[in-house]
């Protein structure tokens, strides 16, 4: 299921990049050409007004750097044959080297899903209904593990799939506008934009590798606790802690990869969403408290108005 989903998404992304990169390069080429011309004029002016004779070295450096970035950015077939596959498929190669041939994030996610499904069926089949102490204990342990497995892995799956799909779609947008940022490496004042672009691409690679490793870690947990039929009270408690840790890990992996890649990552959607939900919940609680305070104040004002004149009439 997940292999089909990610394979379908990869096909759409490749076709979209192939269709859009050439058009985008055609659009930015006049603008880039104008910037290059102005930069060469600026270098010529600096050479004429410089007392030291650096014109030969500056000319060689300018021609070399211009030729390098132009070959990468404006040569669409070369860009599609080398840059795009490098960014999209390098995480799969790294994951295969770490976990085994043919392993990647989508395969690991599919394996985790299959193992979870097998483990749930195994736990359900081990539930024995009876009135003896052993049957009641087995029913309690297996039922508890079944319930915790469902509520523990569903959030982890949801966060992982949403993050990986969002990161893959976002990196396709990065690759579409990539020629413009590669050309920015030619100008000293805009090289920071190129560095930011490469950092975002590297962030996607790290994120895919980290999630594949986390999936294999979860599979090992299932094999150790569930498939080995080693279901005890101690293992149930450990499983609760591990399930909670996996959910936290799924929200922290984008932060880790973005920090290692040098900035805010393309996959911080989940973390920002969780922060937004927390802020919304806090605002709702504050609004509820304000409503209660306003209602109490209104009651006190109404009571004071109703008591005006009472007890002030003197006898005689």
From TrEMBL:
One of its GO terms (cellular component) is membrane. GO terms for biological process: protein secretion by the type IV secretion system. It comes from the Bacteria. It is a multi-pass membrane protein. The chain crosses the membrane at residues 12-45, 66-89, 144-163, 169-189, 201-219, 231-251. Keywords: Membrane, Transmembrane, Transmembrane helix. The keyword Transmembrane helix applies. Its main location: membrane. It is found in: Membrane. This is Conjugal transfer protein TrbL.
């Amino acid at each position: 299921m997940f292999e089909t989903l990610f394979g379908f998404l990869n096909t759409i992304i490749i076709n979209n990049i192939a269709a859009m990169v050439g058009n985008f390069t055609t659009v930015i080429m006049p603008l880039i050409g104008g910037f290059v011309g102005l930069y060469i004029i600026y270098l010529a002016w600096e050479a004429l007004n410089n007392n030291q004779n650096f014109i030969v070295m500056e000319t060689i450096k300018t021609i070399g750097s211009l030729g390098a970035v132009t070959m990468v950015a404006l040569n669409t077939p070369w860009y599609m044959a080398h840059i795009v596959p490098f960014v999209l498929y390098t995480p799969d190669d790294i994951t295969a080297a770490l976990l085994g041939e043919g392993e990647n994030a989508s395969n690991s996610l599919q394996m985790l899903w299959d193992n979870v499904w097998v483990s749930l069926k195994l736990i359900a089949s081990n539930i024995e209904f009876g009135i003896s102490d052993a049957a009641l204990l087995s029913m309690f342990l297996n039922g508890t593990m079944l319930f915790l497995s469902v509520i523990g892995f569903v959030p982890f799956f949801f966060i992982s799939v949403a993050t990986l799909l969002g990161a893959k779609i976002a990196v396709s947008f990065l690759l579409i506008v990539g020629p413009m940022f590669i050309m920015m490496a030619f100008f000293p004042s805009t090289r920071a934009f190129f560095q930011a672009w490469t950092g975002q691409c590297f962030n996607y690679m790290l994120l895919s590798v980290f999630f594949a490793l986390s999936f294999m870690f979860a599979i090992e947990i299932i094999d150790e606790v569930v498939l080995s039929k080693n279901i005890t009270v101690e293992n149930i408690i450990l499983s609760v802690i591990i399930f909670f840790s996996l959910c936290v890990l799924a929200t922290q992996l984008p932060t880790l990869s973005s920090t290692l890649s040098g900035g805010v990552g393309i996959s911080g959607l989940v973390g920002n969403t969780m922060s937004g939900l927390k802020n919304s919940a806090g605002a709702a609680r504050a609004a509820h408290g304000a409503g209660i305070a306003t209602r109490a104040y209104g009651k006190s004002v109404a009571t004071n108005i109703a008591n005006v004149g009472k007890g002030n009439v003197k006898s005689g």
